[in-house]
């Protein structure tokens, strides 16, 4: 996933000053907060990392500080510790304090976004104007309150924006208002939201092929919709193709759900459990290819992701007389035309004699040297 | 691009000595298995859960012979629409609706979450398609070899 980790250059002298001031306050601040059960000292070290002298000489570091509470599996997933390894600014002190925060019960998502005026490129570091807004959702945009830290910081930074430190909020965002723009919390929240949405649209734009030259939300949305539809249709088509190409194979999901639940409790690799199959004739498919390269000549896939574990489960409903399919696919990515990302596909299934019990194994096998084995035996 | 969990593709395979089950029926079952695998590959995701629920509900209903349940009424996310002119707003809303319908579980997602889920879903779909293509080619080669060997 894309991560927005900005590491603006830091001014050590300023930071030293700030750090000295903040450390004392941080302690007492944390004390207060500890009572409430939410420790939100995160802003303080972040403040201490602010850089007052960016290249353009105007803004400060901007960041958006989010807690995960509002999002399920946050996107992007960012560990807050990452964001504090900023140049030379991070000292041992700050790191420990930061690590303490990361150990807090409350998970945090931290994004750093440097905002820039429209038309400027996306520099990784300082933007021209940085944005920090405190969005207080529970209070509904009450007037800004100054805390000692905020005051301190403002003195040091000299910015004319408001800052809030609200310890007890479950959810707040630090964004600084841009120069010449409305600073009430509603419009700032709106702006934050809009920027978030446009980030995501940009990400989608990269993901979906062929929409790089299209501007405008509507066009991009169209492309996205078309792409998703085409992918879904491809899945359908491929499943029909699989059905057509292999009359001996059948896919069955009877009692899959039971297996699913058991599977869900298992971690990735499950050793082979049972090889007993008294009543059943094992018929297994193993891919054997004499010429690894020629075998893969038909493949034009790009499997960029890493390990793919093929799970196969075999079910033997009472109605079906006993043939099992035991299939194992061993694919070595390096020796074939497959992308390097694909390392291994390996699945082995064994069927037990009993009816409702469906053993399930998923194996993440080793990378076999240059062998694509294929054999079919009935 | 890595997801939280492992990438898994689930296939459920069973042979029947008689290939009596119709082609369409097999194809449909393969599709369900493939979608289940897709959902499994990104287990923690909202769309993944929604897809799983949908599939399992379908299986459950099929097994007991019930009819398909009616679609749950979709929540109209009011902040779906951004700030644009009226016509554009309507058009955008329509497109967002379409996207919501495509992405499993998208009906009750607002715009930003919707895009998140869409991105993840697209990635998972791409992986799924790749794996299925690989499977199809490999199995196709198997058939060819079998024929060549006079099997």
How is the topology of this model organized?
The complex is a heterodimer of chains A (378) and B (151).
Chain A: H1 12-36, H2 43-48, E1 64-67, H3 92-102, E2 108-111, E3 135-136, H4 148-157, E4 172-173, H5 185-207, H6 217-245, E5 249-250, H7 256-265, E6 281-289, H8 292-295, E7 308-313, E8 323-328, E9 360-362, E10 372-376
Parallel strand pairs in A: 6-8
Antiparallel strand pairs in A: 1-2, 3-4, 6-10, 7-9
Helix pairs in contact in A: 1-4
Chain B: E1 7-12, E2 14-15, H1 23-41, H2 46-64, H3 86-102, H4 111-148
Helix pairs in contact in B: 1-2, 1-4
Query: Can you summarize the main beta sheet of chain A?
Result: 3 strands, mixed
Can you count the beta strands of chain A?
Answer: 10
Number of continuous helical runs of chain A = 8
What are the secondary-structure elements of chain A, in order, as H or E? Answer: HHEHEEHEHHEHEHEEEE
How much strand content do the residues of chain A show?
Answer: 5-15%
Order of SSEs of chain B: EEHHHH
Shape of chain A: elongated
Give the largest interface.
A-B, 93 and 85 residues
Shape of chain B: elongated
Average per-residue pLDDT of chain A, rounded, comes to 51
Instruction: Estimate what percentage of residues of chain B fall within beta strands.
Output: 5-15%
- Unreliable stretches of chain A (pLDDT < 50, length at least 5) are 4-10, 33-74, 76-166, 253-257, 267-378
In helices, the fraction of residues of chain A equals: 25-40%
Major β-sheet profile of chain B: none
Give a concise summary.
Chain A is of the alpha+beta class.
Could you characterize the architecture of this molecule?
The complex is a heterodimer of chains A (378) and B (151). Chain A is an alpha+beta fold. Chain A is built from 8 helices and 10 strands. Chain A has a 3-stranded mixed beta sheet with strand order 8-6-10. Chain A starts with 11 loop residues before the first helix and ends with a strand. Chain B is built from 4 helices and 2 strands. In chain B, helix 1 (23-41) runs antiparallel to helix 2 (46-64) and helix 1 crosses helix 4. Residues 1-18 and 72-79 of chain B have low confidence and may be disordered. Chain A: Residues 181-231 form the BHLH domain. Chain A: Residues 96-105, 126-140, 152-170 have a biased composition (Basic and acidic residues).
